[in-house]
Design goal:
The chain has one domain: NAD(P)-binding Rossmann-like Domain (Rossmann fold). It has 8 helices and 7 strands. The longest helix has 29 residues. The radius of gyration is 17 Å and the shape is globular. The model has no long low-confidence stretch (mean pLDDT 93).
Length: 257
């Protein structure tokens, strides 16, 4: 990424961000933008080699930390390790997740629980731990990566839709509880963003691709950096009076007809 000149209000110099699922896709796109804005980033995921490869590309202000957000009891240790690597956390991005494409009547309890465990329980456990520390320091920003499935009825993703819809309740309650202590909580709802995962989902399914693009007023897929710059904004001093919001970054898909 080319070096950017930032208005001080959007500068993240001195900020320390932990990004779950940070080695690829949207997580890596956000990490790229955070580093360009001056922040240090700690990338958390289960595949250490993938994280280390991403950190090489990002440079000296990126750190790899192997961890599994579904191991809820490990959240305090994970935050401890992140802070030893980079410093006291000021930003948390809950991005890690799993996807399950099945009709509701074919989704069993274990499959449903696995998606909820990763998205909802994992994000809450990590937010609770990071939030305690941010509240003590009276400074912090927590971001949840929601989805179009938080707003729209999308078939064959019942567990994912339940988890991403629940994110919005977390955002509102945490923003209300933590706002008086200097901690802001917001969400980004990405639309259809170009990635290897999207390519796999759309390959061989021209009808689905046409349907998605047909309901997106900007008539194209987004880029990971589109999500990254939105995350930079919400985590920056420019958004210091913004909390409890869900920002669609979707080319208009949520309002398209």
């Amino acid at each position: 990424m080319n070096k950017q000149t930032f208005n001080p209000a959007f500068n993240l110099a001195g900020q320390i961000a932990l990004i779950t699922g940070g080695g690829t896709g949207l997580g890596l796109g956000m990490a790229r933008c955070f580093v360009a804005a001056g922040a240090k980033v700690v990338l958390v995921g289960r595949r250490k080699e993938e994280l280390e490869k991403a950190c090489v590309a990002l440079g000296k202000n990126a750190f790899a930390l192997a961890g599994d957000v579904t191991r809820l009891e490990s959240a305090p240790a994970l935050v401890d390790q992140a802070e030893k690597l980079a410093g006291p956390l000021t930003i948390l991005v809950n991005n890690a997740g799993v996807h399950l494409k099945k009709f509701a009547t074919d989704t069993n309890d274990a499959e449903f629980a696995n998606v909820i465990q990763t998205h909802l329980f994992g994000a809450f456990a990590l937010s609770r731990e990071a939030g305690r520390r941010m509240i003590e320091r009276r400074n912090g920003s927590v971001l949840f990566i929601a989805s179009m499935a938080s707003f729209l009825g999308v078939p064959q993703v019942v567990a994912y839709s339940a988890a991403k819809s629940a994110y919005l309740g977390l955002v509102r309650t945490l923003a209300t509880e933590w706002g008086p202590h200097g901690v802001r909580v917001n969400a980004i709802a990405p639309g259809w963003i170009a990635s290897d995962m999207l390519d796999k989902a759309m390959s061989g399914d021209p009808v689905r691709k046409a349907k998605v693009l047909g309901r997106t007023p900007m008539a194209r897929f987004g880029d990971p950096d589109d999500i990254g710059w939105a995350a930079v904004y919400l985590a920056s001093p420019a958004a210091k009076f913004i909390t409890g919001v869900v920002l669609p970054v979707d080319g208009g898909a949520a309002i398209g007809f």
